[in-house]
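ugh ok fine here u go
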Amino acid sequence: MSDRIHSIDTLRAIAIFFIVIAHVQPFRGFGTYGNYIYFVLDTIGQFDVPFFFATSGYFLAETVNVDNVISTVSGSIRKLGSIYLFGRLLSITAIVGLALFQGVPVANALIARGLGDISTIDFLYYGSALAVPLWFLTALIFALIFVACFVRFGKTRYLLPVAALVHIVGLIGINYQIIGNVPFRTRDALFFGFFYVALGYQISSINWTPNENRSHIYFGAACLLAGVQLVEQYAIGYIIRDHVLRQDIFMTEYTVSTIFFVLALFAYVLSNPQWGKNTILPKVGKHALGIYLLHVPLIRLFRTINRVWRPEIGIDLSSTLLWQLTLTPLVYALSLAIYLFMAKIHVIELGGSHTPWLNRIWSHSRISVRERSPDEN
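structure:
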């Protein structure tokens, strides 16, 4: 196996495309068959966020041990923290820019996006303030801290069982309330991210290397489990809760079958590490986080343009087949292009800090202070 697992980068590129689908919501409300199409796409794509959590745990296990766990995880937290801060600034900039474009008071736009309701726990833990998709970053930060605690105290044999137990509580709280009522949010670090990071850590720490000759079996298993996930999510949303798919979409989040779906996908990519190597997908997958950060502001931009232009052109673009077919790939490609452009002009550092200008300001301030201080000699 080569140093770079191209198949993981390839699946990252595919996973982030499904995340964009989840937020663009193509074909949702576009007639009966439109709801069917969106339900299938969104449900199959439910592996996306769990896969990113699992890969983080997988690569963490390759570098961390009881002696370096604090420094290693601290470095990851600093990097993720800079990305989170960049995402927050990007969200605020997008809200302000769109408000000015529409001629809406900026203060009203910020309040409408929940600025007045921000709490410390929402900002630091749940990560849902102003831009809900950024919850992934705070969940990953805390999930890494949870895993690091087990590593630091030499209790990794308990890691996956404990994570699985709390994940079961999360599953009950988000999808299986008929079993019991869980009176708090469970799409977070503890009840969701922790389990998948622990799962990836466990896969790497036991040095699980699926046989290359069985890659077609793992691929078949992943396809089968995608079907199982469709059945489970349909049962949760439209049988247990008595919704009607042709009328509306019920969002089911993650389910029991998601666990095995992600495992099958992981087995496939590990058994076929060169998958996608000669395509553009591994290169895109390396920058999946950039697409994640930028796609929601771009979606809001296109939807705002549609609302503003609708009276002028006399048509709601979102009601056209062209909009439904092209918005997702357009947002995907533009998000990547803008992210790489930001790196080119040194707004961010690929693979490093996403707030390098803060470091430059801090360094400049320290130099200025030293220059103003009396000469000790």
